[in-house]
Amino acid sequence: MRSEARKAGTRPCTRRSAASRRSGGCAWLRKRTGWRSRIDFAIQCAPDHPWLSQHPEWFSWRPDGSLRYAENPPKKYEDIVNVDFYAKHALPALWIALRDVVQVWVDEGVKIFRVDNPHTKPLPFWEWLIRDIRSRDPGVISWPRRSRARP
After folding, report:
1. pTM (2 decimals)?
2. Residue ranges covered by each domain of the chain
3. Nearest to 60 by CA among 108, 114, 120, 8
4. CA–CA dist 113, 58 (Å, integer)
């Protein structure tokens, strides 16, 4: 899994706190307390995320060369950048990188992922991601977050 990411020129972009590393992370918490962790999987980046400089082809750019920020009309978010699943060079590297992010957390013991705005990502991506992750760990649950209805 991680070797695939290296071949694609990516690496999972996750950070664990020193306390989490010392304690054993989510698996330790589950064993000790019986609690299960849930991760909110929102596929977006901050404008200073390393992927923007390492893989600019994964993002949408305006004709003037400026970055296209996330929009959810009438709102515009200048602190959020969405990846472009339909970009020419997004496959397979972007998909593998996103899968690797999920896999890092599965390896830490997280089995439940709340998916933010799943309807804004391609269905083939979700089918591939869920199938791939569940082939390694059938107990992983994806839980789509339903968007609020507009008035």
Report:
1. 0.75
2. 2-45+84-144
3. 120
4. 23
